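Blackboard transcription, Thursday session:
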Amino acid sequence: MFNKVRVRFAPSPTGGLHLGGVRTVLYNYLFAKKNGGDFIVRIEDTDQTRFVAGAEEYIFNCLQWCGLQPDESVIHGGEYAPYRQSERKAMYRQYAEKLVEEGHAYYAFDTPEELDAMREKLKAEGSNSLQYDHSVRMKMNNSLRLLPAETQALLDSQTPYVIRIKVNPHEIISFTDMIRGDIDFDTNNVDDKVLLKADGMPTYHLAVVVDDYLMKISHAFRGEEWLPSAPVHILLWKHLFGLNHMPQWAHLPLILKPDGNGKLSKRDGDRLGFPVYAMDWTDPKTNELTKGFKEIGFLPEAFNNLLAVLGWNDGTEQELFSLEELVEKFSMERVHKGGAKFDFDKAKWYNHEWIKKLDVSHYQQRVKDIFAGKDIIITDDTRFAAVLNLVKDRCTLLTDFYTQASFFFKAPDAIDVPAIKPKWDDKKQLFFAELSRALELMPLWEQGQLENEFKEIAAANQLKPGELMLPFRVMLVGGKFGPGVFDIAASIGRQNTLQRISHAMALLA
RNA sequence: GCCGCGUUGGUCAAGGGGUUAAGACGCCUCCCUUUCACGGAGGAAUCACGGGUUCGAAUCCCGUACGUGGUACCA
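(Written on the board underneath:)
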């Protein structure tokens, strides 16, 4: 039975790939890989999204960065092409017409104004429901109420129409969700949803069902917001293809905003200062750039990890999981039913852990690019790797490597003079002058030697090394941070060390 | 309003009749470190409420509250 797992989603109206979207894809991927199935990603081009240039490519770039490559090409070619909804229009219509013929759907000619009027009237009557359903459809302008000849006349005269599903009342529809178990719906509460729009495009309801059937999908994951429309989809499966072909559904919990309540949106990220998209996205219409996790310095390993455990855990105390481990340990039964608030601090913690855990070779090139973007061109990769190893423990984001290590490659832009000035005196001035002379003559430029020399001169001047280390550090790195001072001096070399000392002394004098 | 789904510290969460109710993030204290981190030790903080069932309920049942999603020719 097991065949294909798919995720299907439309990019947001402005483009961009949201955290929730990536997590849905991730769970699909894990489930498919664990069970030996194919993993498919399908993207819709709907009214809202089909004109967003580059959105499809962008999404696949994001998935590639995350290491979640689909098994089937979902943009071009392949057994089930075409994939774009607009290129499949004719198929959808065919199935919609079939439903009409068999009495499970009907033509509706109501104008938007008429629909508004109907809802106003229901509201005025104090009705609980404002839906277009079994209780109102015989009062509306559709092929159920009209005589066949009247319907035909409207059709012939090119009157715009939609096709709506005909939902019979007083039925219980039930299905088993992989996460939530058995769920029942009373069809009295299900309305006659539009299946085919006036412009000939299908709604999501028709498209998912038809596509899932045609593409032989066995498992379908989607966000919890789709749960209320599940009965419509089940009815369509029943009428069109038979319930025994219907995929198994999993409705994933929502990712919520950190403060207050509600679904996490791009606006929350802007407001609270963190990304919500996987990668940078520029809206082609407005040219507005939205930052992505990749660009602010996240590792894909951390990104997958933090997303996977937002709504799932393996029941042990383990927090850090590689993709391979996730594939091995993931199970749908352990996915939560309730939504989880997104916590950016914890997200950063995962990245920090992965930076520490991974060998620097995994991200050396990316850090190199970050440096290049700030006009530091790295030529010695071996030394670069050594420096990265020296500072990786104190970097939470990849971009932190710049602040933590740029001084290894160029003199600091600014010296934190106020940090040393208050305790600066002639004795220290003298010490550093003497130190400079000694360092100039030191035969071997090496960390241990440096430290010895430093301490001997300090002792000779009756100064405690402790009072001198901080000034020395600030001279070399510009501030009160960074790895061991003598490591730094050893790494940047004699020339640079001497220059930085004299530069700072001039500022302090 | 109606319908669906949910509810264990501030957040992510384990636990599914008997536990001192794990662990992680964040916060605080201390140790380590002649900087900042890392690391280590500790601390504050939780079962939404009310009724049942039971010898015993965070756990099972029923209500209530709260949250959230849907209620579109959006997905």
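Lecturer's comment: The first helix of chain A runs from residue 19 to 35.
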